[in-house]
Structure to design on (872 residues):
């Protein structure tokens, strides 16, 4: 089982994407799950430093040498834990406690620290959906931790987990944690409903598998009733909640957080020991998260009375429009091409999945970028096996609706050529305007 | 050998130090190797903002959406590599090349990434001086890498390395890297001369051991002729150079760098493969170093025409005075106490070593803080064995000469009590002023 699933350390999707974007600078990109540039511009340097100053004033008042405090080394656990806990309570309904929290250099460091701490032995295994965010698999592999895929296609993840646990038992290995993005998954956009979430909690509690809930996209819901994060549904002490300000504020801040439950499977001391272990690991990974970055996040949270709901409204509304533009264009130009092409309608987040009736991997990505002027992500980049080789991740967050329509048209031309249907491809939009 | 030397994952010195400082807030601290607060204050939020803006202007001019670039995700290898390479060439005489460089979240991440990349197998070993910076040992242990100590006391480190290599060979293990602070070592203040550096290079080249040269303190020389970093002396491709802006600019920035040699033991392709491996690991550790932090460093480097020599002058001059104040006070109050007390005169850096004729470990540290009002660091915290149990690290960077004199007096009272010489202790200085 190990040899089958364990991929050796491999090139990161992020770096490969950068190389492609450099090589084809004029291509339209539907590949990157970054926030829209225009929502970042509200955080120009002046505003950043106003925010830092606001936090400084709040934390230290007019105290002498207040300024230097932010510039010094700081606590490995972080200095804005109260404010982050408040934001998680207000915006995510997660009962986060500053004493069980750890501020990290983005969510990526949070994942890396948790995987290393939860899977210290060579027979420990991390479960992860297949496909899943490549950074989680990469972090596990970088820490020498084996990753076993759990199918992301089934509606019953709990059952898939049961099967993986049984298989692992046969070979004497143990699943210690499950990495999961329950809300608006990267890369699939899939949103688990409450009963699915509860089923996973039950299964993981039974097998003492910690759920690493990555909720990077949870605040970006475009339709339907809010579903609580698994950390809010958890009563057994099974969920570690991972959060980030990269999507709500700005990626550059590199501020995220790990929130531990009140107990770990009912054991309060074990939970505190894990927190201490994580803080130690944090100190050996990056000493502490930049206090300037923390002060910027803290200052914005103070200004917004603790919640980011108002702050993200313009982005939320734009991403919803982008999603709708993408869904409409897929309907308009791909539906007529073939009945074998399908896609999902994600109720939130940054991504959707397109399924095509042919292989779409690295070769096809390059072909698309080079000959058709559009960059999209093969789902195989997020996969631990070959089950995703006919799927594409389409991102609608970092662009605008004109570009989305033009990009989908270009992609349709490529697909038509692959299906030998060249006459059916739509004409290029007469004008493709660049983002405002 | 393994069981003898391999200490399990243990509490970090940094976190313990914070706890002690919290518990005894009025105690004078000679424990922390942080930059002096007053030199950080020249980087108030307004100046930080100016620096980031200067870099933005330099990098993007008036380009549309320039602002958002700094706020987005960025390259894992970093965006200010040219400026850092220039600074290393100007200030350290290290022939750094941006194409072989990687910007990291402080030097701590640099150490962690290098140790993990160079020691991927379970029988790979990291050599480290004993005592050494605890963060290096912690990073190795967090990555599951065994650390074997090399005596830091001998003047012939090359010979100590030879002995370690021979012993490791007997048990089928291999030293892959040596972590070393050649200039003004933390915690000892020891400065290796050029022939010592060359001897280590020869030994490490012969055994294909990569030298991880941590040069955090190199620019802080108070006397004597400059000695080139080992990376500048290296002609065989054996030294990976680790640098940081935590001591020269501010710890909060969390910006450091890894500079690889032109070849790795003569092999250019292997060196490039290592660089790519490190960039991958960086992407899985923290995606990229905050571009705001990078822009601040970049803006200051632009303002200073590439060199930080002028920038650090006030700090350099203060630290020199602090060192001299500490040496004078040791001479005045400790010399008369006992002939069995000794200390070194470091030609630079932030630290010196005091040796006492009794055990000084955690119990004594707490005793000192609680009953005498002075906090100092037992050298045992930096040690892989019990050889350092009668030594103390004294830091003179983060305080002022009045506090240093008062702190040494308090320490002298403690030492006198331990030596049963209570009558000989100096009176407390009448006035201990707080830092300006």
């Amino acid at each position: 089982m190990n040899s089958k699933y364990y991929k050796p350390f491999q090139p990161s999707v992020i770096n490969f994407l950068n190389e492609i974007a450099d090589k084809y600078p004029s291509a339209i990109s539907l590949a990157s799950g970054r926030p829209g540039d225009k929502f970042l511009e509200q955080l120009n340097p002046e505003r950043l430093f106003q925010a830092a100053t606001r936090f400084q004033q709040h934390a230290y008042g007019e105290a002498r040498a207040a300024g230097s405090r932010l510039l010094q080394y700081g606590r490995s656990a972080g200095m804005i834990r109260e404010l982050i806990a408040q934001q998680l309570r207000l915006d995510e309904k997660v009962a986060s406690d500053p004493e069980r929290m750890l501020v990290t250099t983005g969510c990526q460091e949070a994942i890396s620290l948790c995987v290393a701490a939860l899977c210290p032995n060579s027979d420990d295994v991390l479960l992860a959906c297949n496909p899943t965010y490549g950074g989680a698999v990469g972090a596990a592999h970088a820490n020498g931790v084996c990753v076993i895929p759990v199918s992301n296609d089934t509606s019953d993840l709990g059952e898939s987990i049961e099967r993986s646990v049984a298989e692992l038992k046969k070979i004497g290995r143990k699943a210690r944690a499950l990495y999961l993005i329950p809300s608006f998954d990267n890369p699939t956009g899939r949103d688990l409903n409450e009963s699915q979430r509860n089923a996973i909690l039950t299964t993981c509690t039974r097998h003492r598998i910690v759920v690493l809930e990555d909720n990077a996209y949870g605040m970006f819901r475009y339709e339907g009733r809010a579903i609580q994060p698994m950390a809010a549904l958890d009563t057994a002490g099974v969920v570690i909640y991972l959060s980030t300000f990269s999507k709500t504020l700005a990626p550059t801040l590199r501020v995220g957080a790990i929130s531990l439950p009140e107990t770990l499977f009912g054991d309060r001391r074990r939970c505190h020991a894990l927190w201490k272990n994580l803080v130690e690991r944090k100190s050996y990974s990056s000493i502490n998260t930049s206090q300037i970055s923390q002060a910027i996040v803290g200052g914005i949270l103070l200004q917004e009375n603790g919640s980011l709901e108002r702050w993200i409204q313009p982005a939320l509304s734009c991403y919803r429009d982008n999603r709708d533009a993408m869904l409409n264009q897929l309907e308009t130009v791909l539906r007529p091409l073939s009945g074998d092409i399908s896609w999902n309608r994600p109720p939130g987040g940054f991504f959707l999945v397109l399924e095509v009736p042919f292989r779409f991997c690295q070769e096809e990505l390059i072909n698309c970028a080079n000959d058709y002027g559009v960059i999209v992500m093969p789902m195989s980049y997020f996969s631990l096996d070959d089950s995703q080789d006919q799927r594409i991740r389409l991102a609608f967050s970092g662009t605008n609706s004109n570009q989305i329509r033009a990009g989908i048209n270009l992609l349709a031309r490529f697909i038509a050529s692959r299906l030998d249907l060249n006459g059916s491809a739509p004409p290029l939009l007469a004008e493709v305007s660049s983002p405002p």
About this structure: Residues 309-334 of chain A form the longest helix (26 residues). Confidence is low (pLDDT under 50) at residues 1-9, 429-436 of chain A. Chain A has 16 helices and 13 strands. The two ends of chain A are 50 Å apart (CA to CA).
